[in-house]
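Deliverable D5.2: sample structural annotation.
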Amino acid sequence: MIAAWCGGLTVLALAAALRPRPAARSVVPRSRDAPPGRQPGHGWWPRRRRDVDAAEVATWCEGLARVVRGGSTLIAALRSVEPPASCRSVVDDIVLALDRGARLTDALTVSSTSPHLNLAITVARACAVNGGPPAEPLDRAAATLRSRAADAAERRTQSAQARLSAVVMTVLPIAMLTLLLATSAPTRAAAVSGPGLAAIAIGGALNIAGWRWMRRIVAQVES
């Protein structure tokens, strides 16, 4: 009975250690009336933090280009086109600066934690500085962002087997220990001894370290 309790507590401790934590939110303040963005996913293999998705920014750039091509100015397009929820706070800052009388070039001098949103803002700022029709540069920026999104999706697909292998290699020792504690009296007797508890503790620490190491390697490949 004592061995079973020790095995159960070990499994719970490992499960708590392996439980993914939500990704940190962006430090850019969000407007009070803005709808919340997408929540970070939960599961065995959480994605790396992505404040802004490339495909969402591409859709926003296409919307800006469509409005501008219809005869509106870039300022009117920024005010009328709905931005993605994940980058609404940055776009709201731009629109607020325009409402306060700032020039377009000054309003577009904002910082973002996302390289995708920075690309769109840089293209819009270049159009405001150099003049000319901004529809074509925005369409090209959208095409570049679509390509980035496709590349990221392909990397996630290619790394799916590695993620599955990491999950199996992490869960299998825990499952085997639980099964042996439940069915084998010698294993339960060894587990409550000093060397047995030390072996379980060392094995659990190595299991957690291996899980985090594999997750970090695959996350670098997906980035």
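Annotation notes: Confidence is low (pLDDT under 50) at residues 1-7, 17-50. The chain has ten helices and no strands.
The annotation will be released with the project's public dataset once the embargo ends.
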